[in-house]
Specification:
two-stranded antiparallel ribbon; alpha+beta; five-stranded mixed sheet; TolA/TonB C-terminal domain; 3 domains; elongated; single chain
C-alpha cells in the first residue's frame, strides 16, 4: 500500500544530551530543596520543644519557691462579741457553770477568739499591714529628730498638733508612701510632721514573737516652749 516510505530525519545527538543534563540538574535542585526544608522543619520542632521544656522548668521552680516562702501558722489572740438576746426570758435561768473572763470581751485582738489566744491557727500576713488592736506588741517610737517649727507660726505664737497615720515595717521604719495626715491644726505643721515620722525609728509590732507590718497613728505636737514637736 505504501510503496514509498519517507525517511525520517536523524535525531540530533547534541539535543538529547542537553535535555538529559537539564533534567538531572532540575531533579538535583528539587531533591536538595526538599532535604533543606526537612532539616529546617526538624530544627524548628527542636526549638519549640526546648522552649516548652524551659517554660515548664521555670513554672516548676516558681511553684517550689512559693511553697518554700509560705510562713508557718501562728495563733492570734482575739476577743468575743457580747450579743444581747432578742427575746428576754421571763423566768430567771439557773446560773451558768461556764467560766466568764472579762478579758475575752476587751475588744483587743481578732473577733471570735479569746484572750488566751486559743483561736484558729492563721498565717502571719505580710501582704497587708495589721491594725494596732490586733498585734500583741504595738510599735513604739524609739528615737526621732526634733520637729522643724515653722518660723511664721513661732513668731505668731501658734502651737498645734498633727495626727499622722503610717505603716511601720518589720525593721521599725516608716514605709515610704504610707504616710497620711488624718488631722492638723494648721497646714504649715503637716510638712514637718511628715519629716519627723519618716525619720523616726520604731520598735516593730509583733505577733507570736514575729515582727509584722502595722498601721499606726502617730501624734506630733508643736510647742513653742520646746522649740519643736514630739
Amino acid at each position: 500500500m505504501f510503496d514509498n516510505l519517507i525517511e525520517s530525519a536523524p535525531a540530533k545527538s547534541g539535543s538529547g544530551v542537553g535535555s538529559g543534563m537539564l533534567s538531572v540538574v532540575i531533579h538535583a535542585v528539587l531533591i536538595s530543596a526538599a532535604v533543606y526544608a526537612t532539616l529546617q522543619a526538624s530544627e524548628a520542632v527542636d526549638e519549640v520543644r526546648q522552649v516548652d521544656v524551659t517554660l515548664q522548668l521555670q513554672q516548676q521552680k516558681q511553684q517550689e519557691q512559693k511553697q518554700e516562702a509560705a510562713p508557718p501558722p501562728v495563733q492570734v489572740k482575739g476577743f468575743s462579741t457580747l450579743v444581747i438576746p432578742k427575746d428576754i426570758p421571763i423566768n430567771i435561768p439557773p446560773p451558768s457553770t461556764q467560766e466568764f473572763n472579762a478579758a475575752d470581751f476587751s475588744g483587743v485582738g481578732v473577733e471570735g477568739g479569746i484572750a488566751r489566744g486559743q483561736v484558729e491557727e492563721r498565717f502571719v500576713r505580710q501582704d497587708q499591714p495589721y491594725l494596732e488592736a490586733v498585734v500583741e506588741e504595738r510599735p513604739e517610737r524609739v528615737s526621732s529628730p526634733p520637729a522643724r517649727y515653722p518660723d511664721i507660726l513661732r513668731q505668731a505664737g501658734i502651737e498645734g498638733r498633727v495626727l499622722v497615720e503610717v505603716v511601720i515595717d518589720t525593721t521599725g521604719h516608716a514605709e515610704r508612701g504610707s504616710i497620711r495626715i488624718l488631722s492638723s491644726t494648721h497646714q504649715l505643721f503637716e510638712g514637718p510632721a511628715r519629716e519627723v515620722v519618716q525619720s523616726s525609728l520604731y520598735s516593730p509590732g509583733k505577733i507570736q514573737g514575729r515582727a509584722v507590718r502595722v498601721r499606726v497613728q502617730v501624734p506630733i505636737n508643736f510647742n513653742i516652749a520646746r522649740a519643736g514637736g514630739q
